[in-house]
Amino acid sequence: MFSYRHAFHAGSHADILKHLTLVHLVEYLQEKPVALTIVDTHAGAGIYSLQDGFATVSKEAEGGIFRLMKFKEAGNPIPESIQKYLDYIEAENTAEELNTYPGSPFILARLLRPQDRLKLFELHPKEIDILRHNIDELECAKQIDVYAVDSFSRLKGLLPPPSRRGLVLIDPSYEDKQDYRYLEEAIEEALQRFATGCYAIWYPILSRRESAALPDRMKKICALHIRSWLHAELRVENAPRERRLQASGMFILNPPWTLEKHLAEALPVITKALGIDGGAQFLLKSFEA
Ligand code: SAM
């Protein structure tokens, strides 16, 4: 426990899939003026350097955000669905250099309107201090609460949000195999309190049984409580002998009707930009009862 530091993975292909989806979810939910409550159950440090520290050791951003920016700079057309996400990355950097990658707390904080609230959970003893420091620097810090407690057991306490308009990002590190079970329990409890909320779950695609089973487990939970889901995956390579993460997925409960079109536009371009070998591919499926 606590060996995971998101700085190693900041700006990776997995972050791109997750954050691209997240930006669209928030923008859709903000189409109505009513206050939106956003919960980020696994926040990390908030924002990361790409030029020193952990990111330079793992070099995961090389296959992610740096590759996507090079693709753009080479003159390849970037659809609006991707550019809207890139706007949040570019806003934290100068035009000349990509030094910094905003994690979900910073992307979400930049999206807040005055009436919105952001709730961040982080359990890592070092990450929580960095997160608090980073959030304190923001103008909208008063709209943000940071909790140093286990989000799986505490999420339900924030639901339903006062305005009954809410988005929950669940992005565990899956460092502990039990996270898959905790995630299911947290989702079940959350849906009992707030079945109309939008829930966005990120997961790694690994040879682990629990990871392969996650989408089907979620579909079963959906069948009991809600009417719609969307499932997207991005694979950048298929090199079974390599240990690095080559694919990840997002499972969205109660997705906005616009999300499928948005990802259908973005994912072919992302796959082309980030694909390393012929195994690069995406999946996009949705269901509405
Ligand atoms: N959501 C972040 C982003 O997109 O920038 C990345 C988060 S990272 C994948 C997962 C984080 O969850 C780690 O920083 C880890 O310390 C934290 N964490 C692990 N278990 C937790 C728990 N039960 N409650 C809250 N935070 C937890």
Features:
single chain, 289 residues, alpha/beta, Rossmann fold, eight-stranded mixed β-sheet, two-stranded antiparallel sheet, 10 helices, globular, binds S-adenosylmethionine
Short description:
This protein is α/β, with parallel strands linked by helices and 289 residues long. The protein has 10 helices and 10 strands.
Question: Care to describe what's here?
Answer:
It is a single chain. This protein is an alpha/beta fold. It has a single domain, classed as Vaccinia Virus protein VP39 (Rossmann fold, 3-Layer(aba) Sandwich), CATH 3.40.50.150. The protein is built from ten helices and ten strands. It has helices at about 15-30, 55-60, 65-75, 80-90, 105-110, 125-135, 150-155, 180-195, 210-225, 260-275, and strands at about 35-40, 45-50, 100, 115-120, 145, 165-170, 200-205, 230-235, 245-255, 280-289. Helix 6 links the parallel strand 4 (about 115-120) and strand 5. The N and C termini lie far apart (about 40 Å). S-adenosylmethionine binds next to helix 1 and helix 7. This is Ribosomal RNA large subunit methyltransferase J. It is an enzyme of class 2 (transferase).
CATH superfamily: Vaccinia Virus protein VP39
Number of strands: 10
CATH class: Alpha Beta
By helix and strand content, what is the structural category? alpha/beta
Helix fraction, binned, reads 25-40%
- Over all CA atoms, what is the radius of gyration? 18 Å
- Total individual domains: 1
How is the main sheet built?
8 strands, mixed
CATH topology: Rossmann fold
Label the overall shape.
globular
Secondary-structure element order, N to C:
HEEHHHEHEHEHEHEHEEHE
DSSP strand (E) fraction?
Answer: 15-25%
